[in-house]
C-alpha cells in the first residue's frame, strides 16, 4: 500500500514493489502537469517509487491544504 508523508517542505507519496517498477506516479487528473508526476523506467532499477511535491507548488497539481482546527492538523484536499 502506498504511504503518504507530509513534511515541513514536501508531501511525498511512496510505494514499494516486489519487482522493478516501470510506470508513472501522478496526482489524479494532473499527469501531464510538470511537477505533478514522476516517471520510472526499468533501467532505473527502482522498487520504491515516489512522488514528492513541494508544499509551495501543491496548488499547481490541483491540491489544497486546509487547517483543521478541531484536531490541530491540516487536511489535503
From TrEMBL:
PROSITE patterns in the cross-refs: ZP_2 (PS51034)
Stretches assigned to the ZP domain: 5-77
Signal peptide from the UniProt entry: none
Transmembrane region(s): none
Protein name: ZP domain-containing protein
Organism: Onchocerca ochengi (Filarial nematode worm)
